[in-house]
């Protein structure tokens, strides 16, 4: 089958949530089908990864965009009464490429990853008409509109007003996609249930979970001896991660340090914003920026903390830490779409002093840390396997081939 895959971020390197998922989808689909990829990047250095993706795709088009220009496009959409996110990612030259490919190739399926990418299919005013026999699949991953609602609840005027408007407009756009596309995919049953609550008339919903390469993310036999060490992993230019780390450092870490003054905290992730970089002035807070291999940092950590206050969908950082056999302490929103059992596979705390108490307790209790870590790895191996979960995509492809969607 011929598949056109349209993604809002270049799916390589697979080092953050959305890129991990889209890369594994493309990798899996390319084993049985011919995949053409159109994607975007706001980092010009990412253009070099086009060659990596050609290993899996017949054709690859990567469009670099400037963030300021994307914000301007989003602002114009805001004034026009449309969703900011759609304007942010919509570029006419990408539309031309997609139109060209649609004209020279009959696609059996078009897969859009992230709701704003639907505009390249729905924009019939400039779009090369999609063949009626082509199956359209939207991988929402999670309910993006709900993230904007969460942002509004943690922001001040006027941003809270803008974010609430975006929440309403993007939800209407998500509804439009579901009505227009043949199939809508979510990363977990919780996300699917949320969409059903927001849009009871939703149709053709599928759940395709994330996975972890548990052979890659596996714990070595030995650990380098260090003072007590905590770790957080994630892209550090992403607001939800920044908010969670700042909350942890301001509210939770001082309480833990009262009992463990030599404690080291590692913040491991790309593009730390100025507030995160400033944390690195503390000699016991280590801000790494980009790292080639995150596994040594997991290996050296006693505990992985996931103190997110804003989250949707499945957090890959949680799954990777669990696959590494680490004891994990997270907030409830960080694990809401992961079927782990608190007290068996990880610990869950939302109150800052309870979170600090749980960390201190685990630092003292090596046996409990091992118990949680061992259970966590087995849980991930049993429930979050890419090969197993991607078979559901095969079912969608088989239905598309049979014309039954």
How would you explain this protein's 3D organization?
The strands form 2 sheets. Strands 3-2-1-4-5-6-7 form a 7-stranded parallel sheet, with helices on both faces. The chain has a 6-stranded parallel sheet with strand order 10-9-8-11-12-13, sandwiched between helices. It contains 16 helices and 13 strands. By secondary structure, the protein is an alpha/beta fold. Helices cover 46% and strands 16% of the residues. Strand 8 (229-233), helix 10 (239-259) and strand 9 form a beta-alpha-beta unit.
Q: What are the main properties of this structure?
A:
405 residues; alpha/beta; Rossmann fold; seven-stranded parallel β-sheet; 16 helices; 13 strands; 16% strand
Question: What's the structural blueprint in terms of helices and strands?
Answer:
Elements: E1 2-7, H1 17-30, E2 34-41, H2 50-53, E3 59-64, H3 67-79, H4 84-89, H5 92-104, E4 109-113, H6 119-122, E5 135-141, H7 144-153, H8 159-180, E6 183-186, H9 189-198, E7 205-207, E8 229-233, H10 239-259, E9 264-268, H11 274-279, E10 285-289, H12 295-300, E11 303-306, H13 316-323, E12 327-330, E13 347-348, H14 352-364, H15 366-383, H16 386-402
Parallel strand pairs: 1-2, 1-4, 2-3, 4-5, 5-6, 6-7, 8-9, 8-11, 9-10, 11-12, 12-13
Helix pairs in contact: 1-16, 7-8, 10-14
């Amino acid at each position: 089958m011929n598949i056109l895959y349209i993604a809002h971020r270049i799916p390589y390197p697979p080092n953050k949530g959305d890129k991990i998922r889209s890369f594994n989808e493309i990798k899996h689909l390319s084993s049985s089908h011919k995949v053409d990829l159109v994607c975007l990047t706001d980092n010009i250095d990412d253009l070099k990864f086009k060659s990596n993706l050609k290993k899996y795709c017949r054709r690859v088009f990567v469009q670099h965009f400037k963030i300021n220009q994307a914000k301007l496009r989003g602002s114009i959409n805001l004034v026009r009464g449309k969703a900011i996110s759609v304007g942010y990612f919509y570029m006419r030259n990408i539309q031309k490429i997609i139109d060209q490919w649609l004209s020279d190739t009959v696609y059996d399926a078009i897969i859009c990853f992230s709701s704003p990418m639907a505009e390249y299919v729905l924009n019939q005013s400039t779009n090369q008409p999609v063949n009626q026999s082509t199956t359209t699949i939207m991988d929402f991953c999670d309910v993006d509109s709900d993230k904007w609602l969460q942002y509004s609840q943690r922001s001040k005027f006027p941003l809270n007003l803008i974010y609430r408007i975006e929440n309403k407009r993007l939800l209407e756009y998500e509804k439009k996609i579901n009505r227009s596309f043949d199939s809508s995919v979510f990363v977990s049953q919780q996300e699917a249930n949320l969409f059903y609550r927001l849009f009871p008339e939703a149709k053709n919903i599928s759940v395709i979970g994330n996975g972890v390469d548990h052979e890659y993310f596996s714990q070595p036999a030995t650990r380098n001896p260090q003072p007590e060490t905590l770790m957080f992993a994630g892209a550090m230019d992403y607001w939800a991660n920044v908010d969670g780390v700042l909350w942890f450092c301001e509210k939770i870490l001082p309480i833990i340090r009262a009992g463990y003054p030599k404690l080291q905290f590692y913040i491991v992730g790309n593009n730390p914003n100025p507030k995160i970089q400033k944390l690195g002035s503390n000699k016991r807070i280590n801000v790494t920026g980009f790292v080639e291999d995150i596994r040594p940092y997991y290996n050296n950590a006693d505990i992985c903390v996931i103190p997110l206050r804003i989250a949707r969908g499945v957090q890959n950082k949680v799954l990777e830490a669990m696959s590494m056999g680490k004891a994990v302490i997270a907030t409830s929103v960080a694990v809401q779409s992961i079927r782990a059992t608190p007290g068996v596979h990880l610990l869950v705390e939302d109150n800052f002093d309870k979170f600090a108490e749980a960390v201190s307790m685990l630092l003292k209790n090596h046996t409990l840390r091992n118990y949680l870590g061992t259970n966590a790895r087995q849980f991930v191996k049993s429930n979050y396997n890419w090969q197993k979960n991607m078979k559901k995509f095969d079912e969608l492809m088989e239905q598309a081939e049979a014309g039954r969607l």
